[in-house]
Amino acid sequence: MNYLKNILEIFIISTRLGLTSFGGPSAHLGYFHAEYVDRKKWIDEKSYADLVALAQFLPGPASSQVGIGIGVMRGGVLGGLISFLGFTFPSVLVLIIFASLMSTINVGDASWIQGLKIVAVVIVLHAVLGMAKNLTPDIHRKCIALFAVIILLVFPSVLSQVGVIVIAAIVGLFLFKNDDTTHVKTSFPINKYFSIFCLILFFALLIMLPILREITGNYWITFIDSFYRSGSLVFGGGHVVLPLLEQEFVALNWISEEAFLAGYAATQAVPGPLFTFAAYLGTVMNGWFGGIIATLAIFLPAFLLILGCLPFWDMIRNHDKAKRAIMGVNAAVVGILFAALYTPIATSAIHEPKDFALAAILFVMLNYLKLAPWIIVLSGAVGGILISFI
């Protein structure tokens, strides 16, 4: 009875957070701290910090992974699943409804869409520069990122992405030294055999889906692979998934640039994780069923990784070889995102000097004035209308 009560409480609280947590991953972590650490006292300060560190260490939406982790600590694997559903479902539902209505709206010739294209360049550039500062601080990692950029611009393909990641891991293993001798311990209540299964499944899908995609050409395998791989390669928050998704779907003409950016703007206006943008994209392409499949596919890597790593977190962060390989992978991901930022995002948005001027204004607003992303989106839409008269 107590267990069922815990599960119900997890669902109620996570759903409330899913309805009210605006502002992106950093803001979400603040809401979680206020609710789970200060108010409910489900987790102590140190354990929360450890969990946040693990979520930042892994690819995927950090705030969602922290929510899953807290659910696991409170109610086991089912608690993690319920916590995820509560936090994610409200924004998924809103975006599926919005995408369904988009079929009746013609946004193709709207001048504000050009403004949103420029907003996409600015927000993603800001996010990727932040990643580069943290993940490529030395010349070796900058060179790995440059290698990834060159390979993906010259040989753009799904297999190139996977190959770059594997090569970067091997290079990092042999090239880097980690002098951090800090050893810490944290306990998470989850079965290790189940965690091993989750990690094996994560890597199996990451490797096999692109291969099956190339061999079969099956639409749904391609659809699931695109979302799954995008969710597997993102560090640094939901904004960074934008270039990967645009490269996957706009470049293949599965969705128009205008519809893509209209959905991105809508995602900025709803609470919850930014990865729910996948629900909008999937619905535009394949109706509400496609929206659900896309949501599951993009969040599945995060779910598998957090469940897989929780009981092994101490070993991973204190294991020298693992850390060195991950340093190389992180640097390669920066390069992958810079390549995707250039094309298709920047090449489809910056055509004239006035486009660059608007981008510069918006970048200053975001990077130096520290205005919220939704303000940048609104300003970009208005700016797009204004520059259409110039």
From TrEMBL:
Residues passing through the membrane, by range: 77-100, 112-132, 144-173, 193-212, 261-282, 288-313, 325-345, 357-387
Q: Which UniProt keywords apply?
A: Cell membrane, Membrane, Transmembrane, Transmembrane helix
Record carries keyword NADP: no
**One GO cellular component, as annotated:** plasma membrane
Identify the stretch annotated as signal peptide in this record.
none
Cite a single Pfam family from the UniProt record. Answer: Chromate_transp
**Which compartment or compartments is the protein found in?**
Cell membrane
What InterPro entries does the annotation carry? Chr_Tranpt_l_chain (IPR014047), Chromate_transpt (IPR003370)
Where is it chiefly localized? membrane
Specify the protein's topology with respect to the membrane.
Multi-pass membrane protein
Would the keyword Signal turn up in this protein's UniProt record? no
GO terms (molecular function) for this protein are: chromate transmembrane transporter activity
Question: Known NCBIfam families for this protein?
Answer: 2A51
Provide the family line.
Belongs to the chromate ion transporter (CHR) (TC 2.A.51) family.
Q: What is this protein called?
A: Chromate transport protein
Organism per entry: Jeotgalicoccus meleagridis
Q: Which gene encodes it?
A: chrA_2
